[in-house]
Structure formats: structure tokens, C-alpha cells
Amino acid sequence: MARHLILLAVSATFGVTAHSLLNVRLLIIILIFLCFLYFSVGLSLKALSFHLVIMGIFLGAASFSDHRNKTAYHGTESQFIITFTDQPNIDGNSLKGFIGSEKGERLVLRYKITTELEQEKLSQFLRIGLSCPAEGTLQIPEKNRNENSFDYQRYLFRQGTHWIFKADSISFQECKEGGNSILVSIRNLRLKGIAYIREHFPEESSGFVTALIFGDQRYIDEGDLTNYQRLGLVHLLAISGLHVSFLTGMLFYIGIRVGITRERMMMAILLFLPVYMLLSGASPSVVRSCSMAMLFFLLLLFKKRISAGAAIGSTYMALLFFRPNMLYDIGFQLSFAVTFSIIMSSSIFLQYPKKSMQLFILSSICQLAALPILLFHFFEVSLLGVFLNVLYVPLYSIILLPFSLISLFIHLLLPSFGQPLISLLNFTFILCNKAADAASELPLASIPFGKPPFLMMLLLVISLIGLCLTWEVSFEKSKIWCGMIIVLLLLQYNLQRFSPFGEVQIIDVGQGDSILIILPFNRGNYLIDTGGQITFPIDKWELKRKKFNTADDIIIPLLKSKGIHQLDKLILTHPDADHMGSAKELIDNFKVAEIIIGGWSEEQYRDMDLITVAREKKMKMTVLKRGDQWVAGGARFAVLSPFKQEENKNDSSIVLFTELGGVSWLLTGDMGEEGERELLRTFPQLQADILKVGHHGSKTSSSAPFLEQLQPKAALISVGKDNRYGHPHGDVIGNLEGNGIKVFRTDEDGSIIYKYYKSSGTFRKTLP
Questions:
Q1: N or C end of the chain, less CB within 10 A?
Q2: Tens digits of residue pLDDT in 488-520
């Protein structure tokens, strides 16, 4: 039964997927699956027909869910009655989170807190269930503005959310209680529990205890969380079957020991699990583990038993039928993939008598099950994580999770007795985090493979299934599948080395510049500028837990998605924050072979943190000026500027000329009109097919004489959406269009990509 339910669950997945992604590729996969059922599993035509019916039912469920997912707003409304339906998130000077409107629609709230006093009052006052009058505007969520980046608009849509409500004012003095339902009371109890931990536990451990008990990771130190993610250990901080099994087992044991009958304890646990689901945040992993436990105890209450495989298959199909969009949640995918692999491979690790070996095999199987999902979404995996999980899983399940619960419980009852336990717990977390920090610096901690193409994903999944099926019989028979997986991973890792395609990409970093050049066959990966934000002094209370950084949040994920393992050159055109403000974070977290700066600007870089880090890493530093050049992959890169000391930093920008994909490129940094005139005097025959417009299209650049001589066919403008400077200037756009030049701009088009093969290529935009 378990086997058939799991196969039906696969058919249900195809049904849901077909609603949003019905194409030739999906049809090929479905055909392969049906052939597998017929030839390998031996299902009859009648059974195959039933699988097709299941696909149709779940396709209908997804269609019905999508049909109901409509907005009642037009976007012109300005007055609302908002209700705090989820945990309000106060982060520095901003209040954000999900809210409900008077029309019953879910919105994302964005509100700027103006004073520290207001922040303190909101921290004490806000709770779930409050309804308040508010004024503001509705905004459509942003789509992904860069290739392979997170699509926030699609993510919200799948959660039934269509608008971001940017509140100008919220009348907190007019707020009313929205009712004291059990649901609201449980959620507010969760808020109080989180607040209690943050108040009484040290900063080093409070975020981890909050994550382990209440499923909220937002208070974990950003560096620690990054380390756990890189090492493949972050699943330990998400509430899952491990937590649910421990809690239900502990409650059941205590109940039996104090004299409660087994039947009453099972009923008590059935009542407890939905409450715990809400207390712990109701994430997909929590819903999955609690649902499976409830099914198990419910059947046990009626003297029935169900296998773990049947339980996970039934739970998966039930959740997918009522909430089809859960399929696209990464937590949902990882939770079911890993749990499924543990259940279906139990006979594999039980073949090994030693507990340590069993744990290693189990860790390996879990990592392999998560591999395609991690590669598709995050483009990297940790080989070191297989070994670290052997250490960290018992540490968290046997020591830290129980210790956290006991410490909180005792501190609630007897604070004086609980404090020493909290101190000991804090010390243990500090040691674990230091070990994770040291491990994250090791070579195999995190390996970027790039986003696999469709065929690679298909072969990888087939190989993993083949490995599990043959390993059950004998490890000797599974060696061919192990070899296939290794070959596929090596091929994916080196995919860029075999690619004959080159690329020039204007990355959308907001109001700044960043250009990625990828030469064919991995002959050179260059990044020109990193973008960055101009920062202003702010009070301590305004600081956010996670500060946005273009290197960490945009550039590095893009590089990893492309399968780039190192940058051969990081070219900083000039020392303005919007061009090199994220350079330090980039070289801190990504391998860079050489940093290039412009001549006569060395003094301006000398005292920057960037240079300190570069020296510590013993990185090569090169100064370029007019006349310098290099050749790579058959392409010549010539430096046209700077040629002397300039008073204006913009005119000291590195200006590059090159030919890529059959067209010539002039990349001008922030060079202004004076620099353009000098360039024309020195290079009177200068022409270029593609112009990277200087200084974000400001009025001080791209003069008419410059455009007339250059005669570009296309102009690229890197500029922030709705920027405060009014870039690009209307006169510049007028000059460009008046000369018949095709204009691409990141504020309207997102990242702009020119992909080429030999001497021909095409432009495409990320935003439609």
C-alpha cells in the first residue's frame, strides 16, 4: 500500500505542476514515469488509467485554487482597516509583515517608524488580532530583476497575496481588538513566548532557542545563519519530525508514568498537535510532521496501524489537494524529499551494524535527496555537510533541543534555578557556532555548481532513484548509479568550461553600476564594479537585523547560478560608493584573482576596508591607465582612460573598449562631458556599436557630439528604479532616441543580457 500511495503522490505532483508548467519537457517526464510504472513496476493498463485520473484531479484542484486566487482591489484605494493576522515584525525603523484587510484579503505591510519611542511603544502594543485604520498606497510586488534571482511577486501570489500596502499612517490609538478566538490566542501566546526568550536568554543563544521552540529564525545572527546554510545544517533550526517526535514521545511517556491511560494520552496528543502547529509557526515542515503524527495517533486510537511510507504519501496528497501551491515552497519540497528518503531507505542503513555508520549513511542519503532541490534553488551544495550532520544531528536532537525546552520551562517556574541552565546552554551554542564558523571556511564547505539545465536535472533525479532502488538490494549493484551521479556532478561543476557561449550582463544593482563579462570556455570572468549604496549616519535603534548588500544579495547568487567559481578580474572604475561600495563583501565571500583600479586614484582607495581585506588575502592588485591592454579568449580589452590626475572622480573612471560577440563595446563608468570631449580629441576615429552610458544617464554625460561620432546602435543605462536623482535625464534619452539608438535601461528592463556565440549574439531583458 505504501508503495502505491507514494507512486500516486508522484502522479499528483505532475497534476499540480501541469497547471502552471504544461510543456513538452513535462510531458516527456510524465511519459517516462508511465513507462516506468508499466515496464518496471508492472502496473496494468487499468492501474495506469487510475494514475492519469489522479493527475487530472490534482490538475483540477490547482486550477480551482488559482481561480480563487483573485484580488478585490484595483490599486487606487488609499484608506483601509488592517488587521494584524501574523506576527508583526519590527526591524529597526520598519514595521513589516502580513496583514488582513477589511475585504478579507492578505496584504504585505510596509510602515516606516519615525522615532525610537514609537518603536518601543509598538513593541509592547502590537499583537495579533488588532484592527487599525490606516492610510497609504497599494504597490504591485517586484518580479525578479536579475537572472535566476528570487521572484518575490510569484512567491506572494502563490500565498494568495497580490499587493504591498505601503502605509503612510496607521492610527494606532484607534485600534480595536478583532476578537479573542482560540486561533488568535494561540498566536499571541507564541508572540509572548518569543518575547520572553529574547528578554531572558543571552543574545548568542536566544535566536537559536526561538528557532528550535517556536520555529522563528529571524533573530539568529546573520553570520551564524549563513554558516549553517552554507554547511547544509540549517534544517536543524527548522521544526520538523525530529522535534515533533521528541515532544509527542516525551508527553506520551510522562502521561503514562503519571497514570493516564494510553487512549486518553493519544486523544490529548491529537488535541496538542494542532496547537503546537500554530505555536511553532505552521511552516510546511511543521504542517507535514504534525499531520503525519496526527494520522499515526488517530489510527492507533482505533487499533489500526499504518506504515511510515503510507503516512507520508497520504499526508503529501492531502496537503497538495487542499493547498496546491505548497508544492512550490522550498521548505515543503525539502521536508518531504528528505523524509521520504529516510523512510524508503530504512532497509539500507539498517544493513550496517554500527550506529556511527548508520548515521553517516543516513546523512548521505538525506543530502542526496536534497541535492536536486538545493542545486535548483541555491546553486550550491556542501560536501562537508554530510560529515557535519553526523555530529550536529545528535548534538541538536539529544542535547540542544531538550536542553532548550527544559531551560525555558524551569526559568518560567523558578527563574533563579533556570538562569544557570541558560548560561550553560548559551555556552554550548557559542561553541557550536564557533565550530560551524571555522568549518564554513574549509574548501568543501560550499561548492557552487550553477543552476542545472533541464536535462541535467532529469538525469540527476533518475540516477538518485536508481541508486536508492539498487542499494536496497546490494551496494555492489548501486555502484554504477554512484558513478553516474559523480560524473553528472563533475560535468555540472565544469559546465562553463565546455560552454562556447559568451555573455555580457548589465546587472540590476539599483542606483549603481555592475557589469559581468563571461568569455567562452571559461577563458575569463570579469566583473566591472559591484554597485553599492550610499549610506548616511543613523541611530542605533534604526539599524536592521540584516543589512542589504548588493554583493551578498545580488551579485554572488548570480555568479553561483552561472557556475562561476572565481572572478579573474574585479575592475573598479572609480572610488564612488555606487560603483564599489560592495567590493569588500564580494572579496570576503567570493574568490577573486585580481583587483584592478584606475591610475592616479590609489590614494583614494588606500584607507578603505577593501584594501585591508585584499592585503590579508594576499590578492593581486593592478593599476591600469590609458595604453594598457590585455587579451583573453580571443578578445582584446583596451584601456582608454584615465590618463592623468582628475579633480572630478567621475572623469577618472576606467574606460574600456573591447569587441565581443561581433560587436564593439565602450564601457565608460561615470565619465562626464569633459572626459567625453577629451576622448574624442585623442581618438578621433573612435566608434562603438554598444555604449554603456556614463553616470547613469545624467545630464552631465552622453553629449550630442559624443553620440554623433560614436554612432552606437544600442545604449545601456544602469539606473535605479524611481531614484532620487531623476536619472536618466530626459535630454539624454531624447539625444539617444533622436540618433536612432536602441535604449536599454535597468530600471525598466531589469538586468540586460547579451549572449553570443562566436561573432553573433542577441540582447534580452529580464523584465518583460
A1: C
A2: 999 999 999 999 999 999 999 999 999 999 999
